[in-house]
Request: fold
Amino acid sequence: MIPKNAIGIFDSGVGGLTIMKEVIKYLPNENVIYFGDTARLPYGDKSEEAVIRFTMESASFLIEKRIKLLIVACFTASSHALKILEQKLSIPVIGVIQSGVVELMAATKSKRVAILGTLSTIQSGVLQALIQNKESSFVIFPTACPLFVPLIEEELFDHPATRMIGEHYLKHLPEKNIDSALLACTHYPIIRPLIQEILGPHVALIEPARSCAIKTQTCLEQCDLLNRQKATPLYEFYASDNPEKFCRLAKFFFGSDINLKIEKK
Amino acid sequence: MIPKNAIGIFDSGVGGLTIMKEVIKYLPNENVIYFGDTARLPYGDKSEEAVIRFTMESASFLIEKRIKLLIVACFTASSHALKILEQKLSIPVIGVIQSGVVELMAATKSKRVAILGTLSTIQSGVLQALIQNKESSFVIFPTACPLFVPLIEEELFDHPATRMIGEHYLKHLPEKNIDSALLACTHYPIIRPLIQEILGPHVALIEPARSCAIKTQTCLEQCDLLNRQKATPLYEFYASDNPEKFCRLAKFFFGSDINLKIEKK
Reply:
C-alpha cells in the first residue's frame, strides 16, 4: 500500500458525503473515492445478513480501486459488518459507530442519552452494547426513526409532515431528561434544526463526522500512509444507481456539485 | 407446461399480495408462488436499468419453480420490464399496468384522469403512453407520490402526517375536474380512504387487481392451462429479505397470516 492511494468511503447512499466533507477538511492532500450503493438503499430496514452481503460487495469494489483505508460511513453497515470487514480486509477499516460513541460519551454529563437511527441500526443493539461495555451506568434511549431518510431524500427538510413524524418518533424523549443525542445516521444532520427543536435546546446533538476524520488522520499517520504530495487531490464519486437523484442530493450533503460515475451492483 | 404448475406472482415487496388475493378468488384451484424482492425494494425510486435487472433476476427464480404464467404485480417493474419479459420468457406474462389502464379507461366519463404512482412509474411515462395510444383525447395528470410506500410500510395508514403528505402530493388535483384516478402502485389501496377524502367522493379510485385476475383466468383458459384438479391449492411465499416485516405487513395486504421462505438476491 502506498501513501498516494486513495481513502475509500462507503455508504448505502448519499449520506456519507457528510463524512467525506469533514475528512477532506482534515486531510486536504488525500485522494478520496466514494461509493454509494444507491441501487440497494435503504440499508436501514434490511436484515443483518443482507446488509453484510451488500457491504462486502461494496467494499470489494473499493478494494479493487486500491484504497489504503476504508471508512464505512453508514451506521447500519457499521453496526452489522464492521467486524467482518476488519477480519477480511488487510487495510485499516474505520466505522462511524465508534466515532459516534466516543463523541456521545464525551458530550454527556448526566449519562442519560438517546440514539436516533434507522430500524436496523437500532435493532442491532451494537451502539447500545458499545456504550454499555465502556460504562454500564449509562441510561440509553434507542429510538428508531425509519421515515427520516425517505423524508430527507424527498427534500422535505422543514415540511410540517416531517415535523409531525419527528414528533411521532421523538415526543417521548423530552421527559427522559437526556442531555445528549447521537444522530446515528448520516442523513439526520440535514434535519438537525428540526430535531433540536423537538428535543429542546439543552440537548447536545452529536455527529460522528469530525471524530471520524480525526481518527482517519491518526490512523494514516500511525501506518505511515499520509499522502505528503502537494498535488491537487482527486475525488472520485461512484453510485450503483440513480445518478440524477444522487447529484441533486449531493449539494445538501457535500455542499457542492459532483461528477458521478455509475458502478452497477 | 402442465396445468398443475403454479402461477408465479412477482412484486418488489409485499404490495403484490393485493393482486394475489384477487387472483385466488377468481382461480381457487390454482397453485400460486409469490416472490417479493424485499432485499432491494423499493423499486419505485430506482433507475429503469436497475429495475429491469432486478425484475429479470426475480423472474428467473420463479421460472426455475416451473411456473406456467407470470404476473408482474408491481407497477414500476411492469412499466420498465414487461416488454423484455414477454420477449425472453416462453410463458404468458401479465402486468398490472395494462389491467390498470383498461379499468381506468372504462371508469372515466370525462376522460380527465389522474395516475398516482411511484417516481419511477410516473417518470417512465409508460402508463401515460398506453392511454394516449388508445385514445389521444384523454387529459392525464400523472402524480408521483414517493413517500406513500414508506409511510404505509411504517403502518401509518391514517396518521396526520400521512394525510399531510397526501395533501402535499394531491392538493392540485381537485381543481382539475378529474373523475377517476388510477392507484398505480399496489401499496396505495391500503390508504384508499385517505386518498378518497383528499380527491373527493366523486372521483373513482381504480385498482388493477380484479381486472388482472380476470385477465389471468382468460389467458389460462385460452392456453388450456387451467388447473382442473380439485385438490387444496398450494400457496408458497418467498421474499429476498426481512421476513418479519413481510409477514407483519402481509396481514394488511393479504388479509391473513402466511408462511414465508427466504430466497436471497
Observations:
- The interface with chain A takes residues 38-40, 45-47, 49-50, 53, 146-147, 150-151, 153-154, 156, 159-161, 164-165, 168, 240-243, 245, 264 of chain B (CB under 8 Å).
- Chain B has two domains: 7-95+209-262, 98-206.
- The radius of gyration of chain B is 18 Å.
